[in-house]
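Q: Hi! First time doing this. I have a protein sequence and I read that you can turn it into a structure. Is that right? Here it is:
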Amino acid sequence: MGFCWSGECGSRPCWAGHYMPCHAGWVGPAVPLCIYGFCSMMRPIEPFMTEFLTGTYKNLTTEQVTRQVYPVWTYSSLVLLIPVLLVTDFLRYKPVIILQGLSNVTTCLLVLVGSGVRSAQLAFFSYSIAMAADVAYFSYIYSVVQPSYYQKVTSYVKGAVLLGYAVGALLGQLLVSLGGVSLYCLAVVTLISVSVALITSFFLPMPETSLLLKGTYSAQQGSSGEDRHASESRDFSTWVKSVTAARHVRRMFRRLVLDCKKCYSSAAVLFFCIWAATGTCGFYQVTGYVQLLWVYMQPHNFTAYNGGVDSLSTLSGAAATVAVGHMSLEWSVWGELVLGGFTFLIAGAIFLMDRTDNIWISYSCFCLFKTVYMALTTICTFQIAKMLSRERYALVFGMNSFVRTILQSVLTAIVISSKSLQLTITSQFLIYASYFVAISLLFTVRGVYTVLHMKRPAGGTQTERGTNLPEDSRL
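A: Yes, that's right. Below is the predicted 3D structure, encoded as structure tokens:
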């Protein structure tokens, strides 16, 4: 017996074993996860990574960084994502979050002590492991809180990540501009921050069950007290040890195929997932190479305000994320149209950022781009979560990440790879703007259709598309 994390038992003692004992509702698991997200993203060196690699510290050329180093994490993420997804669910999230923390620490150590292209590539391979493990960070919270809290916890978990990045960027800018601190010291501060995140990850509560296996083996099926719960846990452990790896892999893939078919059979889920994958792909391409665009615009003024711009854009994005979490709007009706309209605004910001010769206009457009993107991706995340049952969160978010990584790898191979078009940095950003225009057109057309279809006087279709579904009626 204990107090209830889920809030299902109100203020009464919890006899049902809802997730884990706590008195804080959604707050209990969300607080350590937000601390972890904040510290793991507070990386003062990141806005200055291009200068760190191409300057006197590592002596790499801009061509090497663009064609040989930065693409490594894109291609590596593509290979790692599916294995990490399967391990994430089987190990119940927390161990994979710890792995992400270890990967971030390893990346910082390699950046600090390594030299040459190979060392930089190894650092970005380690970084790709952390990126692949993002599915654990963003899915974990949905396994330990109730659906009624999804919109709120999504905004806070994403807001913590954005706030951490903003504080790190601002700290880096202040230390460089006012304190005259070297970029090497910024890398040391980054190492300290991600180490704190790693330590925090050990204090995250452990979810009770593996979600993909929940239908067969659930530690919460019984209501006969602690003895039965312990017995079921021992039975589950015995079963895990008895099956062979081959049988487990076959069963997991069979379950994945069936679950994917069921999840993506819903048009609502499908379109929000399409935006989540395509929008995030474009976001990573823009943010990953925008420093090179600014170096091109101001070749002899490496820093100047990169950290400040990153900080401002991330703070505004965090504010937009939290604001979206508290907005009252019929997202199942208007969500797709909102995505279409604001994606066009993103495309315009990228186009102007690329075409202008004024660094301040480019900075301003980047702030607008990042703020709007953060708000839109939050909408997609909590809408997808509301329409799915618990055991499918990691699957869908992982598949979205996998599709995103495939698209990103294709874009990288076409516009950046040394064996393809080898476009200039300005031509690359023109392609990214066109890419977002295509997304905007798709969702504007789909959004108009949805609004007209849902607002028809006759029928109860709107109820069918509602997202506040009871748990047993979710996909």
